[in-house]
Write a sequence for this structure.
């Protein structure tokens, strides 16, 4: 074997161990949030920290640094987009980033996250912010510490934003969000001044078992592969991966609301189809995952909203839904159902928000993350600040913390910073990518009416999924859509769709 | 901190990492056998091997050897049964054993086990031994290799038997089994020459969901702690542990047979109550698990059979069972139900066998393990040998391999050797321990009639469970029952119980 090939093989063997340790840690997390009994929490935190620390130790091993150095000339001899050059390039970028964070810190962060999640899972139903406050203060302290390992930032949130969305920082996100806000607020104002849509059909009693079985049928139809995945119940739905052959989603069910399980499934399946579509030869490598939070979210939102809340999709799927729930829906026409699932209203819960107001929920959280990190807002004042800002942006006051500051798991299981901007970037990109697919395959909407999603799925797999993290977010956006990120397609999409549903 | 205390703390920190790696590996296995989609198998095998190898590497670290040496005089200054002396003693014993096995071998064994399990899970329902034959040959080769790391044995099976049942070897087990067989065969002959008991009441249709809920109720009543455990479905029920706070059991359901889920649950809950009863300060240490296969099995069999198939237990529990399954059981009296659940017959499946014939199933497997290891039987000839021996011992010919050589998971997920003798040792010990408890607490049977199990549970916890692996099996048997292992109590138990059910 020639020398660089041998070194590359050595590198891959080492990276696979790191990947496996991270995937094992993901299983520890999945189990904790789906099935683990309460007595398991203490050890689980410790075990999760051990996996995180070992993965970090193995990754920042000097031998990996040496291999990456030795492979530089081999990399330069290859085309930029070859698998080998990309593996070396992306591994080096992540290696240099990882070098800055001590393994003990990673272990501490992971252990704290596991304990903090457990406290949140009890505090939220009890509507008791005081039970998580000390944890959250520690999370903020750790988040700042993490950012500070990357000295030269413009804003302390920048390194955390960059982890999730490569190439972005607080100032670029702020500017983008300001533009979007300018366009969104008049639409929201116009819609919410109109009489509310009747969505009572969604709020009948829908038994859990039937919701679960229909929810599974829907994502199977979209293209989620159950031979390499499964669905389990949890508090706060998420997608997770233990290998490219095992990409799972989780869900939750409200028996008095049909939309929660249904759209959450399509959302998480969107994430999962991205991961399931990655080139299998990237298994366990730094290339073997989605490239950024925003691009990932573009896929969950594309399948959940652009497909899953479209008229065309329900032309096909609504009779099946009615067959599943005849008592509840036989008297409800598609002309009533379609506006109900697209009802725009000022509401409390981000994950249940409609497409138009959703981004306002995200902007609120993004701004809080920035303020908490820079110290202009304290954890103590956060619940009150949430109430005030919510009233300002939505004109309603959250009745409690349960559906206010406690509603999202992110700060209670990870870090504060970089956790939310990806959702809105994803919304923006979902329309940009869908438009690009339509340009090549104008037949996609007609196929959707027939329950056929393979053309769309195929285009996404070819242009986005299979590449994993080979390209950065800016690169993949440019390659797949022919331009840099732009809000225009998204605004046009909203104006067209909601212009037909409401007088704008 | 004084020097030995500091060294002991250092030792504990290292051992806890080893314990956590093993517990994490147990979770990988639990997930594989309960929920994992087929696509996850390949990576799971690799990940499981990684955990096994890392645990072994961390355990045989020379620093642990040095600490154990340095702590020898501290250990000798303490009473034999103190926690610290026991931790040092047991860790040293396991360390010296582990030193003999290279980590790469442990990794290979673990990876092979995961792949082999996956093949078995498909081959068994398909009744296709040929799909597992090559795997099984490799398992035999690895099992021999494992034994050979421990050079000075009398018989090649001895090291493998000793792992599971400290102090035992092929010759001692053979002698013990010969004694037991002499006593059992006449009982079996006498019973099976009588007209068969009618157990059709157990073979009505019992829907899965109701079996699962009643099965959970029963083990909760016995004392299995759901805040530190849970029950999930699998192919072949087992108990597993991810920490002393998370001890899970698994079950399976046959809708046309009430006994499978029910007695399997009590069996696995017996194992789990042992682990849940261990002193919490032993968490993650070599002391923090049951002491031997035989003692472990004594607890599963005690709760499954001595309690769970007793007349007294069902005096209390049968009305609850009837309330769960009124259609099936309201017309069946306890006088019909009790003989049905204790029906002695020559049957195909070990895990479903009655108490009397069960040991014949075990002896067959034990003899095959010994013969395979010594080379007097080949894997190729195993299915045929199974048929022949089965016909000889039971007078019936298994109609297929599915319920013959493929029925037990052990050889398909672990090693050949030492896997089965523990079941019969457990049967013997279950009666010996129960007798010892009765001597101190003659009220136990009366309490059982009232659904109270806490006195028995308390005695077992105090005399067996809490000690974990502090004492060897011979030590704990002597301490708890006042004598060495003896078959008398078990033979008396069988003669008394089955003498009342059948004319002996």
């Amino acid at each position: 074997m020639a020398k660089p090939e041998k070194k590359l093989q050595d590198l891959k063997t080492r990276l696979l161990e790191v990947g496996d340790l991270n995937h094992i840690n993901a299983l520890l997390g999945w189990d904790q949030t789906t099935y683990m009994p309460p007595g398991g929490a203490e050890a689980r935190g410790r075990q999760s920290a051990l996996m995180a620390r070992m993965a970090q130790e193995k990754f920042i091993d000097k031998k990996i640094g040496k291999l990456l150095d030795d492979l530089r000339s081999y990399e330069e001899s290859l085309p930029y987009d070859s698998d080998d050059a990309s593996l070396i390039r992306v591994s080096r970028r992540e290696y240099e980033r990882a070098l800055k964070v001590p393994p003990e810190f990673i272990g501490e962060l992971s252990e704290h996250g596991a304990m903090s999640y457990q406290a949140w899972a009890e505090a939220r139903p009890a509507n008791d912010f005081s039970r998580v406050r000390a944890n959250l203060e520690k999370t903020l302290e750790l988040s700042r510490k993490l950012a500070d390992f990357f000295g030269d930032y413009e804003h302390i949130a920048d390194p955390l934003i960059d982890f999730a969305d490569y190439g972005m920082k607080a100032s670029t996100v702020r500017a983008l969000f300001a533009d979007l806000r300018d366009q969104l607020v008049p639409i929201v104002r116009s819609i919410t001044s109109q009489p509310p849509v009747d969505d009572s059909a969604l709020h009948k009693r829908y038994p859990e078992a039937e919701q679960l079985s229909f929810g599974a049928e829907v994502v199977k139809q979209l293209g989620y592969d159950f031979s390499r995945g499964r669905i389990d119940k949890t508090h706060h739905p998420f997608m997770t991966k233990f290998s490219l052959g095992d990409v799972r989603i989780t869900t939750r069910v409200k028996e008095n609301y049909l939309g929660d399980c249904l759209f959450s499934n399509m959302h998480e399946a969107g994430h999962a189809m991205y991961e399931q579509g990655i080139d299998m030869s990237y298994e366990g490598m730094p290339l073997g995952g989605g490239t950024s939070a925003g691009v990932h979210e573009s896929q969950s939102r594309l399948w959940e909203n652009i497909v899953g809340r479209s008229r065309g999709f329900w032309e096909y799927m609504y009779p099946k839904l009615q067959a599943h729930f005849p008592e509840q829906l036989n008297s409800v026409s598609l002309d009533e159902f379609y506006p109900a699932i697209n009802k725009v209203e000022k509401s409390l819960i981000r994950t249940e928000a409609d497409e138009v107001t959703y981004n306002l929920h995200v902007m609120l959280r993004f701004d809080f993350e920035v303020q908490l990190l820079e110290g202009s807002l304290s954890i103590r004042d956060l619940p009150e600040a949430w109430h005030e800002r919510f009233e300002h942006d939505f004109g309603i006051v959250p009745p409690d913390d349960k559906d206010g500051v406690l509603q999202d798991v992110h700060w209670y299981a990870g870090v504060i910073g970089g956790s939310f901007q990806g959702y809105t970037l994803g919304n923006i990109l979902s329309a940009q990518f869908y438009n690009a697919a339509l340009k090549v395959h104008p037949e996609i909407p007609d196929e959707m009416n027939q329950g056929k999603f393979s053309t769309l799925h195929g285009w996404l797999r070819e242009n986005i999924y299979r590449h994993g993290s080979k390209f950065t977010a800016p690169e993949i956006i440019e390659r797949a859509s022919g331009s840099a990120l732009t809000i225009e397609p998204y605004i046009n999409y909203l104006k067209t769709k909601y212009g037909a549903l409401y007088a704008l």
Residues 3-123 of chain B form one domain. Strands of chain B lie at 231-233, 239-243, 246-251.
